[in-house]
Amino acid sequence: MVQHLAAQGITDKNVLHAMQRIPRHLFVANSLWDQAYADHPLPIEQNQTISQPYIVALMTQALQLQKSDRVLEIGTGSGYQTAILAELAGQVYTIERFPQLSQKAQRLLREAGYTNIRYRVGDGSLGWPEEAPFDKIIVTAAAPEVPSSLLAQLADPGRMVIPVGGRQVQTLLLIRRENQELFKEELCACSFLPLVGKEGWPEEESIESRS
Ligand code: SAM
Predict the structure, then answer these.
(1) pLDDT tens, 59-78?
(2) Which of 105, 123, 144, 198 has the smallest number of Cβ neighbours within 10 A?
(3) For residue 132, which of 158, 157, 154 has the smallest C-alpha distance?
(4) Strand 170-178 to strand 154-165: parallel, antiparallel, or no bridges (unpaired)?
């Protein structure tokens, strides 16, 4: 998988090493183990997905994580991306709207020995204001617009990666805050499940998607 990611243009050695170390198959059902290292999303509980490895690598690389970073992740899901963040950053704060997914991820990540992760169940579109500001923010569900609460909780300097756009297809954005200015860069087209919440999509309009 990691050789494939390098061939696809992922150059950050720390990201590649972290993805080599973390056993992705542990984050999916046993029945999917034969597909766990293929470069595509896989279903997890609550009709959600573990994202495609290439997108995970691209988003992580874009964050330029440092060992001192405090990182906010929205969409814990299986916990796979959380593990990568915990390997590369100082402290990870991760929010998931489904309690069942959060609990399962917490169990897996504790068993794996991570002690630098804090978990919250709730609406991540509002961020985690009590712990702000965050050096890095990663949103692994698609928003119609960049949530203003998350922007307000991004440090200066700070980096956020987030898929923004329509319900089927979005653009993966890298947002940088530097010297009180915001810079926006488009990384690629993508297709994520919806961010459902006050600053995301309304519950009843959420749709099936891919990543
Ligand atoms: N990063 C995850 C992984 O490695 O398995 C995959 C995330 S999955 C594509 C998107 C996740 O975002 C789902 O688990 C979904 O329940 C969660 N989600 C959607 N809206 C949310 C919200 N407002 N707050 C927190 N989590 C949310």
Answers:
(1) 999 999 999 999 999 999 99
(2) 198
(3) 154
(4) antiparallel
- 134-146 average pLDDT score: 98
pLDDT at 211: 60
Chain-wide mean pLDDT for the chain?
Answer: 96
DSSP secondary structure letters along 186-204: EEEEE---B-BSTTSB-GG
List of domains in the chain: 64-205 (3.40.50.150)
Cβ partners under 8 Å of residue 181, min gap 6: none
Identify whether 31 is a catalytic site residue: no
- Cα-to-centroid distance, 96 and ligand 1 (Å): 6
- Ligand 1 in reach of 101 Cβ (< 6 A): yes
